[in-house]
Amino acid sequence: MTRNPPADADLRRAIDPVICYPTETLPAPDLDLYRAAREGAHETASVTVPPREARCFSVPAGSFFRITSVEGPQVGDLNLWNATDLSERFYSGKTRALHGTHLTTGRRMWSSFPHLRPMATIIEDSLDWYGRDAFGGSVHDVIGTRCDPYTGNLLSGSQYHHCCHSNLTRALAGHLGASIREAEPHVHDVLNVFMCTGFTRDTGQYFMKASPVRPGDFLEFFAEIDLLGALSACPGGDCSAEHSSDTAVCYPLLVDVFTPRIGALAGWRSPDRNGYDGSHGL
Ligand SMILES: [Zn+2]
C-alpha cells in the first residue's frame, strides 16, 4: 500500500527540475561543412535489408549513410560499432542522457566508455516535422532496447527467432564469419529508426504507435569514425500493433553509403577518444 504523503509533499513536488547534462559545452558538429561535402558525394554502396532480417554495412569515417523507407512503413533497429574495435559501440543510454529520448538533425550517436565520442551525426531527417505529438510520442528513439526473444519468452513463453536482437546477431555473425555465440554479446541497445514511441503520462510505460514514416522518408548520417553498422527491419513493421511475431506486415529498408569528393572535408578530422585519463583516482 502507498504511504500517506508528508505535510510538505506538494512543496517537494513543486521544485523545478534541472537539466542533468546541459549541452552548451558539447562539441557542435559543423553541419554546413557536412552538407556541403554531401552535395558532391557519390554512392559507393547500397544494401537492402529484407523484412524480418538484418544486414551489415561499412561506412568509412568522413562518408555518409542514409536509411530509407521503401515499399511501406517500416521501423529499423540500428547498431553501430567502431569498424576496427567492436568493443567501441553505440551507447544508447548516454546518448539519451545528452540529447533526450529521440534523435533528429544535428544530434549525435555517442560511443561506449572509455571512448565516449561521436560515432555518427544526423545531418538530415525527413520526419523532423513530426515533433512531439499529443501523447508525448516522437520519432527515432533511444529509449527502446530492441525486440528480443528473451523478453518474448519471459512474457509469453514464445520461441520466436526473428526479433531484431536475433536478426542483428545473425547478420553480425555472417559478416564476421563468427558463431552466433561469439556474435551475440556484441549486439547492443539500438537507435529505433522511424519508430514512434514515448512514455504514457499516467503510468510511465513505454509505448509505441504506428510510425508516420512513408516510402521515400529517410534518416541520414555522417560517419565520424570508421563504422560497421547493422540494421534490422523489425518484425513489428510500422509498430502499430505488435512485434516479436510474424503477425505484422513488414517491408524492406534501404541503406545507401555516399563518399564525398577528396578535399570536400578540409579542416575536418575524426574525433579523438574521450580525454579522461582513465586512472579512476588510483
Ligand atoms: Zn524490433
UniProtKB/TrEMBL annotation:
Organism: Sedimentitalea arenosa
Domain DUF1989 span(s) in chain numbering: 48-228
This protein's name: DUF1989 domain-containing protein
The organism's place on the tree of life at top rank: Bacteria
One Pfam family of this chain: DUF1989
